[in-house]
Write a structure and sequence with these properties.
Blueprint: H1 3-16, E1 20-21, H2 46-49, E2 58-66, E3 83-92, H3 97-111, E4 119-124, H4 128-137, E5 145-148, H5 150-153, E6 154-155, H6 159-162, E7 166-177, E8 198-211, E9 217-230, H7 231-238, H8 251-260, H9 270-292
Parallel strand pairs: 1-2, 4-5
Antiparallel strand pairs: 2-3, 3-9, 4-7, 6-7, 7-8, 8-9
Bound molecules: glycine.
Length: 305
């Protein structure tokens, strides 16, 4: 399935569940002094999570994102990017955990036809409600439901202890399992292992708190849903390739860079060649989308402007 078709299928699925399809926001958020770049689908809906200006209660989008925090990893791993698209569905005081989980499962296993047996899930350690929905309603076997702490299963990660302030909540993630023969091949391999057997595809955030400067978690006026699914990573699963750089929208770009830089006959090994071309392909996409959203490159640092 092509990346463009996956994006379309996602938006149509949530449209059929009465979500308003909202255009991607700019990579440079207009009215948010706390953010340099848009890094998640929920950014443009922050005020709705706080209960302000809630003109619709359900939304879905494919958001352009730029994350500079992963810069050093790009090209060296199968799925880190600076620029990527994030598919997301959102509820502002409307549906909550049960519908979010049911619809995520329905979209992946019915619309995309991923096998349920290849999916594992994680929940926040204290979130018995999400755990029970996965176990009793979706019927995921107990051994495939993992409990993690606030680093892995709270969004933003570690928000209760480290911040930032603002809307946050426990989350539940879905992982695709490439099977026992993939990665480390260890019998005990599970989603916490970073060998590549498991790839996280979807994060369902149950946004119910407004984190305060004193670290307290103030309940939001209403309970919300914020989900995030990396389009390029989902495409790699759907297209049966091991890295995001091999999907239909990346491969021609990375291939052309290899050709232009003559990396195919270069002096270094294949892994190095792939890594460099992939990193350049990622950065070209990031720069292109950033410039088209009004960012002006300069060799001067911002401080000297
Ligand atoms: N806002 C959810 C995520 O980025 O995973």
């Amino acid at each position: 399935m092509k990346t463009d078709d996956i994006r379309q299928a996602f938006l149509e699925f949530f449209k059929s569940k009465e979500h308003k399809i909202v255009q991607s926001d700019s990579l440079v958020p207009m009215d948010d002094p706390t953010l340099l770049f848009t890094g998640a689908g929920m950014n443009q809906f922050k005020e709705k999570f706080l209960g302000w200006n809630v003109t619709y209660k359900r939304a879905a989008s494919s958001q352009k994102c730029l994350r500079t925090g992963d810069l050093e990893n790009v090209g060296g791993t199968s799925g880190h990017h600076t620029f990527f698209e994030m598919l997301g569905n959102f509820s502002f005081g409307d549906y909550f955990k049960k519908e979010a989980i049911l619809w995520a499962w329905e979209f992946l296993t019915y619309n995309l036809r991923l096998k349920g047996e290849n999916l594992w899930v994680s929940v926040y350690k204290d979130d018995d409600e999400a755990y029970d929905i996965w176990k009793d309603v979706i019927k995921v076997p107990k051994e495939k439901i993992i409990k993690f702490g606030e680093k892995e299963n709270f969004w933003p990660s570690e928000a209760p202890t480290k911040g930032p302030c603002g809307p946050c909540g426990p989350c539940s993630e879905l992982f695709y399992d490439y099977g026992k023969d993939a990665g480390c091949k260890n019998q005990t391999c599970a989603p916490a292992c970073d060998c590549g057997r498991f790839v996280e595809i979807w994060n369902l955030v149950f946004t119910q708190f407004d984190r305060q400067a004193d670290s307290s978690l103030k309940p939001l006026p209403s309970k919300n849903i914020d989900t995030g699914m990396g389009l390029e990573r989902l495409a790699s699963v759907m297209q049966g390739v091991k890295t995001n750089f091999e999907i239909d929208i990346f491969k021609p770009l990375a291939g052309e860079i290899q050709k232009m830089a003559r990396l195919t006959t270069g002096r270094s090994g294949q892994a190095w060649q792939g890594t460099s071309a992939n990193a350049i392909a990622d950065h070209i996409r990031a720069v292109t989308f950033a410039v088209s959203d009004g960012v002006m490159p300069s060799k001067k640092s911002a401080a000297t402007w």
